[in-house]
Amino acid sequence: MANTKKREPSHTTISRTLGVAIVTGEFEPGSVLPGEIEIAESYSVSRSVVREALRMLSARGLIESKPKIGTRVRARELWNLLDPTLLEWMFEAAPPPHFVRSLFELRLIVEPAAAELAARKKTARQLASMGHALEEMAKHTLSKPEGQLADQEFHAAILEATDNEMLVSLSASIGAAVRWTTYFKFRNNKKPHDPIEEHRALFEAIADGDGERARAVTIKLIEQAERDTQRVLEQ
User: Fold this and answer.
1) For a surface tag, which of 37, 41, 115, 205 has the fewest beta carbons within 10 Å of its beta carbon?
2) Does residue 167 register a pLDDT over 80?
């Protein structure tokens, strides 16, 4: 059977390659990227393709273009660090420990409160979505892409169940954080802690309407995930 997988567009490939180089420090803040002509020649593409790739990087806050200077990497504090694609690029290699710490601190601020709200406000449909995601996680395990996607959907369903549009707007970012930290752990550690029981305990707390227990279980879940990730970084 023929391979029907679509080839990645050239501008996406260039954007990802340059993006990874920026977030991993190959191009430091303040440094100037190669010019459009040089990039176009190195990838055998037109300058319009390069411009589209640079536009994608600019939209994520990574670069800015100025006349007579060129395209410069912006200061790190100006990057859109919660952009799901940027989070993916961060975990292409080994992300800096301070970035991982910041990411888990954010999760500890947002997710326990969200779980407590979800326990009070969830609907039957949202609870069913969590239950289905939990079943898929158990079936495929977090070592496989299907299980990792189910994990992401589980956490997204919790945010949706808060019935708070501000929290729901964080779903893509929180989901990406969950997905890529899990991917990173399993890519670099063949037998990390399996958090399925903690996820099941969280589901049961939300189903029971026990917000305090849902908050406590979420904190335990995130703290364990952070320990696992930091352990991999130290290897």
Assistant:
1) 37
2) yes
